[in-house]
Amino acid sequence: MNTSILASYFRTAFRKFWRNKVFTLINIGGLAIGIFSFVLIMLFVHWELSYDKFFNKSDRIYRLGVDAVWGNTEIHQVYTPAPLPAALYEAFPQVEAVTRVLNPGAITFRIDNKVYSTDKIFLVDSSFLDIFDLQIVAGSLTNQLKEPNTLIISESAAKKYYGEDLVINKTIFAQGIYFRITGIFKDIPQNTHFKYEILTSLSAIPDLAGSQAWFSNNFTCYLLLTKGSDYRNFEAQLPKFTTKYLFKGNYNDFTKQGNKWEYFLQPLSSIHLNSDLAGEFEPNGKLGYVKMFMVIGIFILLLACINFVNLSTARSAQRSKEVALRKIYGSSRKQLIFQFLGESFILTIVCFIIGMAFVETVLPHFRNYINRPVALDYFHNIYTIPFFIVLIFITGILSGFYPAIYMSSFKPVQIYKDKLATSTNGIRLRNILVIFQCAISVFLISGTIIVTRQFYFLQNENLGFAKENIIVVKNAKYLGQRTRVFKEEINRIAGVDAVSISSALPGTDHNNVIFTPEGSDHGLSLNMAEVDKDYLKVMRFSLNKGRFFSEEFPTDTSAIIINLAALNVLDWKERFDRKLRLELSQPIEFHTIGVTEDFHYESKHQTVRPMGMILLNNILSTPNFVSVRIKPGSPVQIVKEIERLWYKMADGSPFEYNFLDESYDRLYKNEAQTRDIFTLFSLLSVFVASLGLFGLSAFLVERRTKEVGIRKAIGATTKGITLSFLLQYIKWVVLAGIIATPLAYLVMQKWLQNFAYPITLGWWIFLIAIAIAVVIAILTVLSQTIKAAAKNPTNLLRYE
């Protein structure tokens, strides 16, 4: 093609853009927001899909999980026993390395005269460094974590605790032991399912690490398989391994009672989005959510492209004479298609530049909003630039292909006979696309309502206990023998209703132990908490049968209270006051004195599991929480008083507290983020759709100026004309709602299946979504229709 002709095409395009500034701005604005939203969503999606892939051997690393049934109690956990690694090395030649990992929770330690606390400390086998390739920046990699009482620390932790990088051979005093720093490693990226700043050897706890008890599960176990190993084949051999090592050949006797104990492998890079086991280091994401956001991103981009198509075809009549003249002077249809596609790509590139400027501006706030350090890496990631090129190409084609085909098909004879204005082809397509846009909006609005209601239900409805107005003081173990005195002193503070000491709280881990019920050979697995007599006053759950612990009954030191789920498993229909034997090296019998109504001490992602409570006696664990129920109002003064008491009794250990409702709500961190992101991008999609509707209505009002003038001249009112305009858009939205509702119902019903306690999808949810879409459509086009309907008919007819 002659370059002068090409140049003339582009000059023509710019003149058309400039003459129709309003519609050009709407096109550019809608497409730029669409690209901006799509890129942000893809950044979130890419981050979620990238977890743990930065480890060099990630494709050969697996975590061992447990899927079991014991006494009708289902167990799905990451916890495994201490002797497991030695047995795996012995049984499987394809195991290159195995490491156990233990996160003991928050640990208080001293450096010089300062006291610190962190929960990012992991106890591991020295083989951890053979599996997870850390970058050691100070100290030798050789023999790290093999010497007793040594540790390695991250660069940021070294600066945080010491204010410098040169900390090799310096010491940390924790748990009565001096640990020597032998290495510093580069901070691990945040896109990993477990985060640590200090690693020390399991030799620090020789009794636990050297235990030979196969059903004392305390460690998370990771395996590195040799190159070329088929992990499915490895997994198929695990039942024989279980029979030999765990059950000493008697596994069939175990399964005859309806029990099972099965190990399975989880590929490292799949853990974050596909695992929700007991013992996860942090709440994981969900693959379903990632797919949902990908669909939303595509929807928003489609909405923006539809706006472009609608406005381009709507204004096609204004360019019909240009097409006719070009065809008369010899332009082929192929040349015209090229011209119109060129215009589309010019606009797309402009929109991309504006959209990326929005992304760079908003990105710091978006990181805070989603709590993920997402970033755009233009030059170090080989996929970034190709991705943007493909995005521009696809967007340009989606936006410009149909308008180019449509406008290049005009015939000069039809144009000059004015038959084009009466053609219904373009109008029919625009109506379909507008309905499609409205359907997407209704779908996303209804989805936002459902996600919000489900999240509220998880956090607040039917929990079975009262989580509000409870201050939780952590690390009570550092008070030692002064814990009870600390409790008594808090009770004297004005505004305090009740105080309790316990080993676990709703939303925290409970020890899982095996009991043997009276008159049965079947074991019962219970999640256990050690509590005091005031636990009921603080948590305010309900009793179904019997009573709670009381000082009036000295025998309560050997009493147990179970929940209704445990009672149902035990099937004690005639009487509940029976005995449960705790299976320790020296078995202990407990008599059941009460049954609580089921309350959600774990998240609502699963049904309430059997649990029990015994009085504080340090049999299972050290009580670590002091829970303080306060009267409604400002808690600031009470916290200050509790802090004063803490530093008076805790020997300098740092004071750490939270509010139970806030810590419990962290169980639903993924749902909260899903709700926020879903809402944000649903609003953006509705805005993009509204922008297109505004531009289209402005154009249609402009095209019907003569009709409005004639109707006003024969007596039509402004109100009547406005309503007639609005009815057209209302019909589109209602029809779109009818189309979108079944799809929204099916998709959201499937999403709700992820929860053990889903909300009910009532018809009113979708009715509200349609009503909101109708109101948005009316508000979008109302100003245009009123302005046209209110004009003087003489001026309107003169306009034509």
Furnish the topology, listing elements before pairings.
Blueprint: H1 3-19, H2 21-49, E1 61-70, E2 73-77, E3 79-81, H3 84-91, E4 95-102, E5 107-111, E6 114-118, E7 121-124, H4 128-131, E8 136-138, E9 150-154, H5 155-162, E10 171-174, E11 177-185, E12 198-201, H6 206-209, E13 217-225, H7 231-236, H8 238-246, H9 251-256, E14 260-267, H10 271-274, H11 287-314, H12 320-328, H13 333-370, H14 384-408, H15 412-416, H16 425-460, E15 470-473, H17 483-491, E16 496-502, E17 511-517, E18 524-531, H18 535-539, E19 543-546, E20 559-563, H19 564-570, E21 579-582, E22 588-596, E23 611-615, E24 625-630, H20 636-649, E25 657-659, H21 660-665, H22 669-703, H23 705-713, H24 718-752, H25 763-789, H26 793-799
Helix pairs in contact: 1-13, 2-11, 2-13, 2-22, 11-14, 11-16, 11-22, 13-14, 16-22, 16-24, 16-25, 22-25, 23-26, 24-25
Molecular structure report:
The protein folds into three domains: 1-50 and 296-423, no CATH class; 58-274, no CATH class; 475-655, no CATH class. The protein is 49% helix and 18% strand. The protein has 26 helices and 25 strands. The longest helix is centred in the middle third of the chain and has 38 residues, at 333-370. Strands 1, 2, 3, 4, 5, 6, 7, 8, 9, 10, 11, 12, 13 and 14 form a 14-stranded mixed β-sheet that branches. The two termini are 39 Å apart. It is an alpha+beta fold.
